[in-house]
Amino acid sequence: MALLEVTAAAERDRQTVKTIGVIGGGQLAWMMAEAATKLDLSLVVQTPKLDDPAVARVGDRAVVLGAVGDAATTRLLADRVEVITFENEFVDLAALGELARSGVCFRPHLVSLEPLLDKYVQRCFLQGIGLPVPAFAAIDDRTQASTITQWDNGDPLTFPAVLKTRRHGYDGQGTRVVADRAELLTVGDRWHWQPLILEAFVPFERELAAVAARSVQGEVVVYPIVETQQVNQVCRRVIAPAPIDPAVAQQCQAIARRLLEAIDAIGVFGIELFATADGRVSVNEVAPRTHNSGHFSIEACRVSQFEQHLRAVAGLPLGATDLISSCAAMVNLLGFESAVSDYREQRDRLAALPRATVHWYGKTSASPGRKLGHVTVLAESPQELQGAIEQIEAIWYGDRP
Ligand code: ADP
Fold it and tell me: What residues make up the domain containing 221?
């Protein structure tokens, strides 16, 4: 039977499911596990270590031990669940394709992941479906970096530009602003000319994100558009809703809907966006999974992104995405030192703030920039929200930048 027919048959048989496998056992799976309890679904996670965050919630017996990219472990996971979803997209797609051909059901489908795993392929795909993206070009080696004069779209190449590794970048690892060609060559040398993409530097006024979900039946919901604020290219805080013109929010919503439909998504997708002062929006990056910019939804929305994702993956109807307060913020608790500490004193002080909820991922060690937890706070005005963010950051970061 052809691949599509096998997939379709597997799909029909499994419209609604009760047991879900998750590739990855970090904080996203940890938060998904809480939502699974609410929906009375069972999760089994594929993760390399028993001290990974999600294990504390699903229990040792709901773990298949193995690296995220190890498809042999995913085969074992498939024996225990009806469908498999992703906390982490750094998978071996070719090997998972073999599993799909043998009838394993992935939600989202592997074809929805395929255009997203490599930043150059992703840019080409987004451009191909008519979404606005910064000008870009693939950089394959030093000679090409020394001579390239045009972006892929034919426009003249300009500096500053942004150099990125095509695969496996996260939290700004593998992303560098390069001021001129000399710096491009220096950074390329340092990165040993692994496959790279160079992009036009976008002089954005704000970075935004759209978190959206699509069901098996094709229904799409979009969360309120948020502003994400990065420090050293890592997301520090998220403001919901973003303080933007309704026309800009509408563009973001339209981009999210167009993308989820074009890619035949099932589940939550996170879309990072740039907004420039002239009211234009372009896509930075798409993640085929729940996203840091959607964590605020646990307390601030009627249905969290984690519940929404599981609803979609399990074949259930989607839920409401409205905010239940006027506004909300999420502050990431990023490591600022290398240490083994549970930071109990700071966490207690954060938890005592009004309308604040602390999520502590239970990681065994801290290092600079590592996501250790987050705090969500609800408020009724932007001023109240700003005051709460300052209190949270003073407790966690103190005077550190
Ligand atoms: P990662 O995949 O590691 O999260 P991103 O590609 O999202 O990396 O880049 C991290 C940050 O770098 C972005 O949030 C943004 O602040 C900055 N950045 C990335 N691409 C550009 C660009 N083309 N123009 C300006 N800033 C950019």
Answer: 206-397
